[in-house]
Structure formats: C-alpha cells, structure tokens
Amino acid sequence: MASRMQQPMFILSEGSQRTRGQAAQDSNIRAGKAVANAVRTTLGPRGMDKMLVDSSGTVVITNDGATILEEMDIEHPAAQMIVEVAQTQEEEVGDGTTTAAVLTGELLAQAEDLLDADLHPTVVVEGYHEGARLAQEAIDEMVLDLDLGDDETLQQVAESSMTGKGTGDVTADALAKLVVEAVRHVADGERIDRDNIRVLTRTGASSSATSFVEGVVIDKERANGNMPKRVEDATVAVLDMKLEVRKGESKAEYNITSVDQLNAAIEAEDRELRGYAKTLKEAGVDVVFCTKKIDDRVAGYLADAGILAFKNVKSTDAKALARATGAKRLGSLGDVDESEFGHVDTVYVEKFGDDELTFVEGGDAAKSVTLFLRGGTEHVVDELERAMNDAVDVVIAALDKGGVVPGAGCTEIAISDYIRAEAAGIEGRKQLAVEAFADAVDSLPRTLAENCGMDPIDAIVDLRALFDKEGRAGIISTGRTGEVADPVEYGIIDPAAVKREAIESATEAATMIVRIDDVIAAE
C-alpha cells in the first residue's frame, strides 16, 4: 500500500513565535538573572539607589526592590515572574524583596549549570524543593530566644529594616522608636491589624519633624471657612450620606404659578437643610466627617451652630476615623442615638503650605494611629514612606509570625551550612541540585560583602570560620567598609518570616521557570 504524503499542519496563528528546548530554557534563565542583577547592588546597608524615569518624565529614586521592579518596564514573561516574587514578598511580610529577587536569580544561575551538566529539569526541581525544606528547618533552629515584649528588641528589628534606606536627616534609631510606639499602641493581645497604622507624608520640613499621632490625620479642609479650627473633648459623627436636599427616585416636574409658591418651595428646602444642622446640634455633635457631599448652605448652618465638618471624606479615612473614635458610620440622621457617636480629646486643623490637614487625636477607642512623615522634597518623603512602611511590617511580622533571627547574612550562612551537611545523605543526582541550592543561598552574604567593599571570597571564608566557632557571624557595615562579627551584638536582627517567605517564593519561581521547555508567543 502506497504511503500517504503527509501535508504540514499549522495549529498556531500566523506570526506566532515558538521557542523550544534548551533555547527556551536559556532565554528564560537569562531574563531572570538579568532582573536579579538589576537590584543586586541595592542589597544591604551599603546598597545603592536606582533612579527610574518613566515615559512621562516622572522620577522615582529608591533602593526598595519591590518598587524598582514595579517601576521597570519589563516585558519578558519569565522576568515578570521575578517581579511577582518581589510583590508577593512585599504583600506577605513587607520586607526582603531584594533578597527574594536576588535569590531567585542565583537559583536560576545554578540551575543553568546543572542543566548544562545534563541534569534533567525535574531532578533540579526536586532538589530545589528539598533544599527549600531544609532551609526552613535551618531557619527554625536560628530563631533567637529574645523577649519580643521588650521595646528595644523590636526597635532593633525596625532599625535593621531601615538601615541603608533613605531617611533624610533623621536617624533610623529615632524612626524605629516611633514605629514600635505605633505598633504597641494598636496591639490588643491578638493579631495586629496593619490597617490601624496609617502613614501620611507632607513636604515642607526636615525629616526630623516626623512624628507619631495617637489618632488619625486626614488630608481634608473644613467644609466652611467660618467653622472652628479646634474642638476639644469632641463628640464625633461619621456619616455615609449626603447633607443636601433629598431627591426623589423618579423624575417629577412641579408647576409653580406664583411667587408665593416659589417662596414656599424655597422655605421648605431651607427648612430641610437647616434640619440637618439642628439635628446634629441637638444630638450634641461637635465634629462631622461625611463621606459624601455637604451642600454649601448646610455647611454654613453647621458653621453657625459651631460644628466643625468635613465633606467627601475617603471611605478608607472614614473607616480609620470610626476605629479611632469609636463612632458608627451612619447612613441617615433618623432616630440617632448618642451611642452611635464617637469621642476624641482634640480635633484641630493645621495649615501646611497651601493645604489644611486635620488631626483627630486621643479617641476613646484609639484603634488607629498615624505616622506623620516630613521631608524637604517629594523624593525624600516617598523614600521615607517606603522605609517606614517596611519597618512597620517587619515589626508586626516579628510579633505575629514566628520571632526573629540574626541578620547581616548570618541566617543565610546557617542555611547553606545546614543544607550541605544534610545533602551528604541524599542519594542520586538530586544531591547536586540540593548543594546548588546551598550555593545560591551563599550568594546573599557574598553580595552583602561586595556592596560593603569587602572581598567576597575572603568574607565568605571568614564568615564560615566565625560561624563554626561562635554559632553566629554576619557582615557588619563599619566605617568605609565592613567586618565579620556577631550581628546580634550589633542589634542586627530580622523577622524569621522574612527569611521563610524569601526562600519559599524564590524557590517556587525558580522551579517554575526551570520546568519550561516550550514558549509559544502570539504575534
């Protein structure tokens, strides 16, 4: 029987590109390494900043890994996975984004060598997962027996997070005290609600003017210029309604045929608007925060009644105000009860440049606090805001997610040593991948040493020697270079959760990329 001629079959749309086998693996790994190398020099206390300029000319100056990767215009799909690693790290624990990105890149670099040595990708993946499991065991063993009820310990955690980041003319130690004060204030013995700690920035003063506000600061002006600027011992109402003339749901037309009818309509409307102010005044309300519109006439009547009011308050601000004052958010003024209002020590409006900010301090509930950050320029306050947010997150992570471990590369050295010791008992080629995982982790203290101006090879040798002798060793930035010493003695400690999340997310991303051997891209 004659064989049939097989015609080529096209299953992809015209213009689609397909990369297979080693070419696909090489492309993905190179892209991942390139992204990791882009943030490598920002790691550690001597990390450098990056200037990012978008197509509209907006400039961002930072050494925050998540911000850098988010601002970069990255198109390669494998590289975007590393961006997602940094984003996940930021969302889960708030810090360690650069660590996670660099570790992902190193895992890919080690995988490239293993693939060149004819290890199958699934063997590499299995070895990496085993290495990640051993790394978690090593982290558990490095958790320090420190009292997290001690403010000084938490201040060290916050300060370690901020070291090397732009904080203007204020020291990381001073900022760390504010961070711990904020966290302690909202802690109620259970899991800490991060939303209760707000950060607000304003230019026009040095960073040393940064302060802690026991309450809420909102970027809102008074609804009427004749309203009081300061109210003591205030009863507060938070409203989710419009203070204006009510409108029917259906369209209706009214035929007015005389001046008397027009005046009557105007008087009825005026009575309704005055009624809002009268109801609030009789209920004993001193301050009103309204998430919706306040008619200018109502604002005038409120001012006549001595009530301080704010309109179009953001829902997030209203939520924080309710937590800080103990008020309930009201959808109407019918049958209002005193228990639905909140109480604060002081509400006052203060001028900053051309804008007014409103401070709500000393509430009965006081579940919300604000870190009010100052700086001379927008770039300074933006970077200060990122540093403070990271510091708040790591302090909460230390309290809520498993304690603290030594920083400065000490935990990474412990991880790599532990993995190598356990790798000896692993049979087959998977052992090579496990050892490669340890080599990738070693890149973190090596990068810290490079960024401190130290010889990375000598630094790693000295780290291992001191770690074997004392059980703790890290890269300490001193003067114009660095030295190898016990990081705990220098107060350099990190949340264990930051290390755990970095290992987990970096491993997941690297193994996913290694397993790809076919890339099909539409036109």
TrEMBL record:
Gene3D superfamilies: GroEL (3.50.7.10), GroEL-like equatorial domain (1.10.560.10), TCP-1-like chaperonin intermediate domain (3.30.260.10)
One Pfam family here: Cpn60_TCP1
UniProt keyword annotation of rRNA-binding present: no
GO molecular function list: ATP binding; ATP hydrolysis activity; ATP-dependent protein folding chaperone; unfolded protein binding
InterPro entries attached to this UniProt entry: Chaperone_TCP-1, Chaperonin_TCP-1_CS, Cpn60/GroEL/TCP-1, GroEL-like_apical_dom_sf, GROEL-like_equatorial_sf, TCP-1-like_intermed_sf, TCP-1_chaperonin, thermosome_alpha
Keywords, comma-separated and alphabetical: ATP-binding, Chaperone, Nucleotide-binding
Family: Belongs to the TCP-1 chaperonin family.
Protein's name according to its UniProt entry: Thermosome
Organism: Halogranum amylolyticum
